[in-house]
Design a protein that fits this description.
With 462 residues, this protein is an all-alpha fold. Helix content is 70%, strand content 1%. A two-stranded antiparallel ribbon has the order 1-2. Helix 13 packs antiparallel against helix 14 (259-271). It is elongated and about 95 Å long.
Length: 462
């Protein structure tokens, strides 16, 4: 993991700056960044060391000012003024300056900066939200409501944008799909924030019934979790597993019991070899739904990767309690038993799996390995031959066939099998096997024990 990714996991005490509706007392930096976009914090109370962590973890969201001066408002304003002389009218700089003015209580100046942005871009949601907040602080509630209505009345179809993203993802254009999902998320967050502020202002103005209507809209119209889920799936397809995991983490902040998010964040973390952290999420999911076969299966695969074969076997057995003919669970239970040296039991599972998938090359190779480990090399050869008929050139079948042929004293055939695996992903294993075979032919019986089985990758993520 990168240093930035590690920093995003740093846990911080948020009690000093959290708002009343936030239940967490501690969150990691990624969660605090998410909370910034969702109005979870009193921004003026965030300590400098937390601001520094946020700036280092998410430099794209903060102005490029020296970290040591982040708490110095005068210095910050000077830097904004200097930057705006070089790039007058830049909306990001103007909004940044406005935020700092508002934080200093200078709301007239903040509203003026936002007005400059809105002159060139009347639908800029950041400027509309910021101006609304400053006008509300100035007790100009009717003007603030106009800003929020500007967001809520914008002709922007979030569903259409999400649907376009889904179409792009279906066509394997995941980069463009992610851009559409981000656009929808930004607009949806802005609309939700506008609803919250509008409801709050109406309540302050004594218009309780209208306020209740908008609070109900907040509850009924939120859909950013589903959009985040779609974005996460596209990021995963692009191999951006850390970013995908971040999406699921954001979902879990608002919906800690979301089984899909718990399962998928576990799978994404497993992809980047964060196995212990991935298992934490699978365990959380299984406490909520102990019999969920998808999560049990994925937990089994992860336990296998962590060499925890007894625990993996327990997971697969629980899947089989519900679905006795589940081919993947049968095959992987067999793999766990093979790794535990319980080859006769493994063969029973492999035979059941092969009844469901008679020509599956991976299961056939693993069955052959269990026969070979039980010293029945003739039956092992039958399995490898069947695997090669189903998947010609499969390197695991070729290597294991060579091993069994070597143990049977059929060295020329063994070496032909090893040579057939040269140039494949097991090239190094094949070359070493040829060296061992030559030593065996030279009379070194001990060398034969170095011929070890090579198991195919067994896990298929559910």
């Amino acid at each position: 993991m990168t240093d930035r990714a590690d920093l995003r996991k740093k846990v911080v005490d948020v009690r000093q700056f959290k708002r009343g509706h936030v239940g967490h007392d501690e969150l990691d930096v990624a969660g605090i960044m998410f909370g910034l976009r969702h109005g979870m914090w009193h921004k003026d109370r965030i300590p400098p060391h937390v601001v520094r962590d946020l700036q280092e973890a998410y430099p794209e969201y903060f102005p490029p000012f020296p970290v040591t001066r982040m708490g110095d408002r005068e210095y910050t304003m000077e830097r904004y003024e200097q930057a705006l002389r070089d790039a007058p009218g830049d909306p990001a700089l103007l909004c940044g300056k406005a935020r700092h003015l508002a934080a200093a209580g200078r709301h007239e100046g903040a509203a003026g900066c936002y007005d400059t942005v809105l002159e060139s871009d009347p639908s800029n949601t950041e400027a509309l939200l910021g101006k609304g907040a400053s006008l509300s602080a100035l007790e100009r509630h009717d003007d603030a409501l106009e800003c929020y209505d500007g967001i809520l009345g914008a002709d922007y179809d979030i569903k259409r944008t999400v649907d376009k993203g889904a179409t792009l993802a279906g066509n394997a254009d995941h980069e463009e799909a992610v851009r559409h999902y981000d656009a929808a998320l930004d607009t949806e967050i802005a609309k939700t924030t506008a609803l919250v502020h509008k409801a709050h202002i109406l309540s302050k103005l004594g218009r309780g019934e209208e306020s209740a209507v908008y609070y109900n809209k907040i509850i009924n119209e939120r859909q950013d979790n589903s959009t985040l889920m779609l974005k996460a799936l596209s990021l995963s397809k692009l191999g951006r597993h850390e970013d995908s995991a971040d999406c699921y983490y954001k979902i879990l902040l608002e919906d800690p019991g979301n089984l899909n998010a718990l399962n998928n964040i576990g799978a994404e973390l497993a992809e980047i070899s964060e196995h212990k952290e991935a298992m934490v999420y699978y365990d959380r999911a299984l406490k909520i739904d102990p019999g969920n076969t998808t999560i049990l299966y994925n937990a089994g695969i992860l336990n296998s990767k962590m060499q925890r074969h007894e625990r993996a076997l327990e997971c697969y057995e629980k899947v089989l309690d519900t679905n006795p003919d589940d081919m993947r669970a049968l095959a992987n239970a067999g793999v766990s038993l093979t790794n535990l040296g319980r080859h006769k039991e493994a063969l029973g599972y492999y035979e059941r799996a092969l009844r469901a998938a008679p020509g599956h090359p991976g299961i056939l190779v693993n069955t052959g390995i269990s026969y070979a480990e039980s010293k029945d090399h003739e039956k092992a050869l039958e399995c490898y031959e069947r695997a090669l008929r189903a998947a010609p050139g499969q390197p695991e079948a070729l290597i294991n066939m060579g091993n069994s042929l070597s143990w049977l004293g059929r060295h020329e055939e063994a070496e032909a099998s090893f040579r057939a695996a040269l140039g494949t992903k097991l090239d190094d294993v094949a070359r070493r096997a040829l060296e061992i075979s030559a030593a065996v032919r030279g009379g070194s019986a001990a060398s034969a024990r170095e011929l070890r089985p090579v198991m195919p990758e067994s896990g298929i993520r559910a």
